């Protein structure tokens, strides 16, 4: 990457010498995938770190979404948010499920529980909310609705690594939660992901499903897929667990500096930490009010680009605006005013564990019009 370019994030990578030691072990064992030793150790270490009872590793963060829907036999219609990465809705499509978009709560970016009930039809079988940017959804209200109508809840928690509310992991909410360990995330294994579940029986089912449905050498119990994580990535995960807290703290410091500098700026809005929540600072979204700021979101975005600052407009366009989904009855902008407003005004500023004060100042100078 060009030294003068400031990227929105940078991967968390382990010390190369330590990784080499682990590669040497893999070479010695000659066991490279299919529930190897590092895979088993990584699952156990993640359960402890994330405070969850059961976890199943995957090769990315999209397959756990697809697999969770399969495991819970979800069909018909699923209520979801348009304000996310497109993989959320794609996972429904790949299961032949019709996505029903519901608007978001502008205070969290997550699905607005008050709008869920009116979107429920006899075909609705589940709700798929997203803890977007790692900000916890209103999980209690969502669960109350799910219980009332007998719906499953699958959280796309791709951004929610290590997020806790009042000391409890957000990943224990709903029926299952998925994680992404993509290199752009706070915690990554180059590509990778996981599914969090509540009981051993479901863990067993998911482990079968991610291994073609094999429940033994000669028995296939379900039409599974290949979603397994290999030993090379599990090793990175084990090493990265040792440094993820420091990385989150470094990101926290970046967030503090952004907030201090941007609070007085008229027309630039951002979110503060939520009380009782342990955040991971995976993203730092700002929302531009063109009239008050005197510049549109895209003008600011392009100005940053001119300076080599590769901020991103996550999540613009809305998923409901992509051609695949545009024709759905729930995909209209009238149905999704809050999501539309956020998508049209958002810029995610660079934030990562290696962002220097000098680089952050360059970013701020553009926004402060210095
Ligand atoms: N659900 C949600 C809510 C998600 O956000 C995602 C993924 C998923 C599900 C699916 O999980 P995965 O199947 O991906 O595990 C990125 C990621 O590819 C994607 O994982 C992520 N969400 C999404 C929000 O962002 P891009 O297209 O923005 O990535 P890219 O390649 O443009 O990278 C962004 C910046 O990161 C680059 O400008 C520089 C930096 N970078 C990137 C890579 C790949 C590096 O410094 N090194 C790298 O190796 O999608």
**CATH architecture field of the largest domain:** 3-Layer(aba) Sandwich
User: Into which percent range does the helicity of residues fall?
Assistant: 25-40%
| Strand residue content | 5-15%
CATH superfamily of the largest domain: Type I PLP-dependent aspartate aminotransferase-like (Major domain)
Q: Can you write the helix and strand succession as a string?
A: EHHEHEHEEHEEEEEHHEEEHHEHEH
- Helical stretch tally: 11
Report on this model:
The protein is globular. α1 (16-29) packs antiparallel against α7, α2 (37-50) packs parallel to α7 (231-262) and α3 packs across α4 (87-93). It has 11 helices and 15 strands. The mean pLDDT is 97. The chain starts with 5 loop residues before the first strand and ends with a helix. It has a 7-stranded mixed beta sheet with strand order 2-10-9-6-5-3-4, sandwiched between helices. It folds into 2 domains: 16-241, Type I PLP-dependent aspartate aminotransferase-like (Major domain) (Aspartate Aminotransferase, domain 2, 3-Layer(aba) Sandwich), CATH 3.40.640; 244-367, Aspartate Aminotransferase, domain 1. The chain has helices spanning 16-29, 37-50, 63-71, 87-93, 139-149, 200-209, 231-262, 290-293, 297-306, 337-345, 357-367, and strands at 6-7, 54-58, 77-80, 98-101, 124-128, 152-156, 164-165, 168-169, 176-180, 193-197, 268-270, 277-278, 284-288, 309-310, 346-349. It is an alpha/beta fold and 370 residues long.
